[in-house]
Structure formats: C-alpha cells, structure tokens
Amino acid sequence: MLFVNTLHAKSSLSELRTQINNSSKSEKAKLYLKLSDHYYYANNNDSALYYAKEALLVSKLNKNDQLMLESYIELYYNYLLTSNSKEVRHSLYNAKKLAYKISDTTQICDILLNLGAFYSENSKFDSAIIHYNESRRLSDLIDYKTNTIQTLIGIGEVYYERGDFENALNNYLEASKYSEAIKDNDIKLSLLIDMGNIYGDDNQIEKAKSYYNQAKELSETINDKETLSTIYNNLATLYQEEKNYTKAQIYFEKSLEIEQSKGYKDGIAITLNNIGENYFLLKDYENAIIFLRESLTTHRHLKLETEIIYNLEVLTQIHLATGNYKQAIKCLNEGITLSKKLKIKGKRSDLLKLLAEYYNKIGNNKKAYSSMLAFNALKDSVRNDAKSTKIAQLQAKFEAVKKEKENEILRVKNQITQDKLEQEKTKSNFLYIFSILALFVIILIVTLFRSKINTHNKMKRVYGLLEDSNSKLKIMNTTKDKFFSIIAHDLRSPFNAILGFSELIKNEVKSGKDLKTIEDYNANINESAKSLFTLLENLLQWANDQRGVLEFTPIQIDLYELIQSNLTIFKLKATDKSIKLFSDIKPNTVAFGDVNMVNTIIRNLISNALKFTNENGEIFLSTISDGNFIYLSVKDTGIGISKNDQDKLFRLDGNFTTMGTKDESGSGLGLILCKEFVKKNGGKIWVESEENKGSKFIFSLKSA
Question: 149-185 burial string, b = 16+ CB within 10 Å, else e?
Fold first, then answer.
C-alpha cells in the first residue's frame, strides 16, 4: 500500500508539472499553489517555499489580487515553520493589504488573528491586543464564531502573560460560551488548560486541578499526546505545591514517557530535571542524582547553559546533603563560572551562598567567611550599579537649571538688541519724514522723546531681570553645595568593597595562596573600582562643566517607544527580583516635551518602583488623556509611603531617603530631579500611596 501511495503521489506531481507547462499564465499560479501545498504537508519546506514564491511572481505579473493574497498566505505558513519572524510579518501585512483591497472580510479576520498571535509570541502585547480586538470586531459583524473564539483566547493569553488574571479569565469564559455552539474539541482543550493555568498561578489549587483533569480526559479521548504531556507536567507542579511529592512523581513520569515517545530532546531534559528535583524533595538522593545527571548531559549536548546552571545547583544541594563534598565543589565551580559568563548575578549569588555552606561543612571557617563576604559584596555591587546613574541625573538637573538661566540672559540681551534696532529704525523713519515734511518736526521730536522713555523703561526692566537671574544663580550654587554633601555618602560603598576584598587578598597571600580565590577577589575589586571610577568621573565632570549646555528642545514624543526602551533597560533588574514589569500604553501615544528630560523622569520612576517593590511584585505603566494633557502613571505593588513621608518626597531641604526591599540605598534626589523636569515641560507630578498597598506616581505632559 505504501508503494502504491508513493507511486500515486509521484504521478500527481508529474501531472501538475505537465499541466503547468501546458497551462495559460492565469492558471499557472493556481498550479504552483497546489504544488506548494503538497510539499508543505510532505515536510519539504524548501520546495514548498519555492513554488509559493513562483505563484506570487506569476500572480503579480497577471495583476490577480486574489491569487496574490493566497500566495502570501501560503508563504506565511511556510515561513512560520522556519521561524523567520521578519518574513512572517512581511507576508501577513501584504496579505492584509490585499484582503482589504478585495473586501474579503473572512480573510481579514484570519490575518488579523494571525498578526495578533505573531505579536503575542514576540512579547509585543500592545500590538497583539490591537490586532486581536480588530479581528474580534469584524468577526462579530459577519458572525464568524470560530474566529471570535480564537481572538478571545488570544486576548486572554496576553492578559495572562501580563499577570492580569481577572481579565484573562473573563476572556476565556466568554470564549467558552461561544465554543459550546460549535463543538470544537481543540478549542475546548485549549480553554481548559488556559483556565487551569490561571487558577494555578492564583494559588487556587483545587480549581486548577479540576480544569487540568477535564483537559486530561479530553486529550485522552482525542489522542492528543503532546498536549497530554503538558497537562501531566502542570498537574505534577500543583502536587508539588501541596508537598505531595509522590503524586507529583507519578505525573512527571507520565509526561516523560510521552516526551520520549515523541523524541523531543529539550522536553525530555526539562522533565528529567523536574523528576530529579522531585526525588530531591523526597530525599531520595540516589534517584535524584541519576535523573539530574541525565538531564545535565542532554542540556550540555543542546548547549542550554542557563538550564545547566539549574541542574548544577540542585546537584550541589544533594552532594552537600549527602556529604559528597568533592562533587559539590566541582558542581559549584562550574555553576559559578557559567553564571559569571552569562552575567546572571542572582543565580551567582545563590551559588556563592552554597559555596559558603560547603566551606562551613568541611570546617574551613576562613573560606566560609570569605565566601559570605563575596556573597554580600556581590549584593552590594548590584546595588551600586545604579550609583553612577544617580550622579548623571544630578548633573542633568543642574545643567538644565543653568541652561534655563543662560537662556533667560540671552533673551534679555536679544531684547536689548531688538530695542536698539527698533530705536534706530524709528529714528530713520522720522528723519526721512522730516526731510520731506518740515511741518511734522514737532511730531518727530515728541515721538523720539517717547521712544527714549520707553527704551529707558525697558532697560530698567532688563536690568531688573538680570538682578533676579543673579539671585537665582546664587540659590542654585547653595543648592549644589547641599547636593555635593549628599553625594559624598554614595562614594563609601565602593570603597568598602575595595578595602574588604583587598584585605582578603592580603590574608590569602600570607596563608592559603589560592590563586583562584585571589582572582575572584581581584575581579570583585575591579568591579567595585569601575563603579567608583564612574561615580568620580561623573562627579568631576559635573563640577568642571558648570558652564556646559543642556538644551531644552520640546518635540513630539511617542511615549510608547520611550516606555518600551526603558522596559528593555530595566528588564534584567526586574528579573533579578522576579518583578513583572509591563505597560498598556498604546503605540502613537504622542506628547510634547523634551525627550531627554521625559526619559530621565520615566527612568527615575521605574527605578524607584523596582527599588521599593518586593520580589514577585508588579509594576504597571499606563496613560490617560483629557485632550490638553497626557497623564502617565507608574504603579507598583511595593511597600507604599505614609502620608507624613509623602510631604517630604519632592523637597530638597528634607533630604528624605529610605532603603529598598533588598537594602538598595539612594540619595533622595531622583524625585526632586523629576519634579524640576516635569515643571520645565509645563506639567505637574504627584503621588498616590498607602503603606503596604503600593504607590502610584503620576505626571502630566502636554498633548501633541
């Protein structure tokens, strides 16, 4: 039968090629599309892409919009298999343009749905929501229920990724109501898993189990083993949350069986790690080591270095628990080296703590103490990463103030020059009139006299402005001195790290002479020295550039783009504290202001939110508009601020500072800088907060 089917397939391909050679130009595109479709299902992606491109070329030559649309859709599905994001997006946008041109609403709905999925997959959630909502709107108009359900699921998944479980659940429930009418098992299965995920993340374990078990029964009925593996893993995780490790083990092993039958190496390795960690929790160290080592071997083969670190961490804990200290230090050294290479400071910090535990267990108290110092120094270095940014922000503030004063003086000088030019012009005009009409001599004299009086009065106002400017500059210098006294405190932490590690090197040279330890200490000294150098360099530059220029150039600003760039900058810091950082600001949210100042305001507010938000917290950025102003808010779930302390936030004379949730220090100047820049841009800034209920900082900008 296989032989007959193969002959039939070859015969069909031969017939298609013969038809292409004998067909008219208008028919060739359709035949190319059939060939592309055949090779797509035969998993021959190169041939499928070739014929899809040929179909597009012929349909363009014939100016056939319908066939061009079908060709772009065929290209989209093939590029999707190659994970070529650029071409996937290009194909979808061209298909959308053609679908609108020929008014094919069903195709428009499908394309918008796929664009939403594309943006969601690439973590561009605002764009995903826009396309999903438009697809939903058109689907409702033409009663396209299948597409409506899929858009609701897509929107729910975006809200789930953002941690907004309530909105995610509402969309899933609405999709579930629609799905009852069309009886689609795949959609029903997807909804059951999504709802189980939400209840699991919300710690509603029993509800999560209920949905996962329903999904399990359905996937077994339709023989969807790949989805069944995912469900087993999810159920196992729930049982781990309940510390029912035996039940968790059963489901992990069921998942492993499916992954092995499918031959997915990365899935097998992750499941092996899960089983090994579960054996560790069961204190079955022998089996834990077997599974973890097998997982480690696969991760090494696949070069998944981050997963390797997690394998090594659990193996270290097992070796320490079983007294196999030789293997423990071997795992620790490799894990620390990898975490340095990948710059994963949080995980490196965890491993340094385990290193201190190792030295303590083998009785080397000196090295245990040194490792704890290294652990603490690494924590300090994370805190000090933001120090140089503070100096730069202070410098920017003073340069902004100075530039404002210099602009004011320049305006005064220009006014004087303009007055002089006007006076000369007036004189010339009147002299010309005098030469023509002697009768108007008296009028000329009176006019000139009045002009002189006006000029004199303007000059008095000008000199008054100059005096006022000089007075403000004196106040600025006094303020600067106070800032310097505050900054001096921020220079101590790097010095402490340098002194501490240099003392450790001195002791190591006298006694142990362990070159690797000395190298680690020297690396920490180098890191602290770089931080100190940056601080000093910014401080000296600020002191020497008091006559520098900071332009105030208000332009149209796309707040969406500005926020996205800042979210990228702070992503690593947020990850270190397991904080979810997201925004619902839509593209083309345009304000009017100085982009550098507005960027500094946003950066300070996000930095403060990260500093005062506990691990596993959330920070959410949003905007509203009243037509004249755009109000941008940065809301966190942090420790909050008392009413009494809120009054001190934007005041220089109060010098109000507190430590962050991970002992992050600060100079108290960030919000003062924000207030000055907001004022410069014609807006206002304020805070809404309660203790232990988070904070919300809001500032306004002019609408463009």
Answer: bbbbbbbbbbbbebebbeebbebbebbbebbeeeebe
> Structure tokens of 330?
């071997």
Burial (CB < 10 A; 0-12, 13-18, 19+), residue 305, is middle
**Separation of alpha carbons 194 and 475, rounded Å:** 60
> Which distant-in-sequence residues (6+ apart) come within 8 Å of 543 by Cβ?
none
C-alpha span between 49 and 47 (Å, rounded): 5
Lowest-pLDDT choice from 242-251, 353-362, 406-415, 658-667? 406-415
Q: What HEC string does 222-277 produce?
A: CCCHHHHHHHHHHHHHHHHHCCCHHHHHHHHHHHHHHHHHHCCHHHHHHHHHHHHH
pLDDT, tens digit (0-9, with 9 covering 90-100), for 101-117: 999 999 999 999 999 99
Which residues make Cβ contacts (< 8 Å) with residue 507, sequence separation at least 6? 366
Question: How crowded is residue 248: how many other Cβ atoms within 10 Å of its Cβ?
Answer: 25
1: helix, strand or coil: coil
How far is the CA of 383 from the CAs of 376, 386, 683, in angstroms? 11, 6, 31
Q: What is the number of alpha carbons within 13 Å of residue 457 lying toward its C-beta?
A: 6
Whole-model pTM: value is 0.41
The pLDDT tens digits of the residues spanning 598-642 come to 998 998 899 889 999 999 999 999 999 998 999 999 999 999 998
Burial track 21-30 (b if 16+ CB lie within 10 A, e otherwise): eeeeeeebbb
CA–CA gap between residue 597 and residue 386 (Å, rounded)? 18
β-pairing, 554-558 vs 618-625, is unpaired
Is the separation of the CB atoms in 36 and 67 below 8 Å? no
If DSSP codes are grouped into helix, strand and coil, which group holds residue 203?
Answer: coil
Query: Which helix (DSSP H) or strand (DSSP E) does residue 623 occupy?
Result: strand 618-625
